[in-house]
């Protein structure tokens, strides 16, 4: 892929994998496990065809050569091994980005090899296409990315708040429009939600839960209207003394029209924020009601 942006800018977008869920369509969530400035371990979740795959990736970052090597430590079946290399090279007034993969599948099964190649190519092209899109707008990225959050402090058990947020299929009728149409959970802790596509947040979302940490992250995989991408996170943090803080965070990537139309951008972000606050209020009310019953 060639793009009209400096190689350092593109390398930075590739090297900082924590921004991938917002910037790259296939990426759902990334957790940085270890990092010493050059080598890192990441836990990654991504859309792979019709499933959500997860693996641990080792990466070596070489800022001088503008390269990022990667190796999957624990690939998702049917992949047995997966390695690769990102390379960014200066090219005239822009840059060339190359993404390489090498893989094997369990038992060398032809059908599994064909599926892995097809999914890897599709995801690679999606990443490179979005990287080119970002490169064309690299001087305006600060205007295209918006982050905001709301927090409430409450004196209720954290597990009751998390329970409400997690059981999205049981949300009450007055959350219509926010409540998913269906919730599919083939892998414990990973949910695929079908949503009312008329909202700004689109028609589908993937959620990953971390109950022990009191966290629930989400990526809306089909957005609409002003939002080019939307990710978010719920966190439940016990506070010293008593009580806990419940926070809902939103990160959005605006499309060009929304960036130029500030009213459209504000309306979209207001809609996202209102939905988050309504869920926050219901989660707190649910926990408070449960405590009174007990």
TrEMBL record:
Pfam families attached to this UniProt entry: Polyketide_cyc
Protein name per UniProt: SRPBCC family protein
Species of origin: Streptomyces rochei (Streptomyces parvullus)
Coenzyme Q-binding protein COQ10 START domain segment(s): 4-131
TM ranges: none
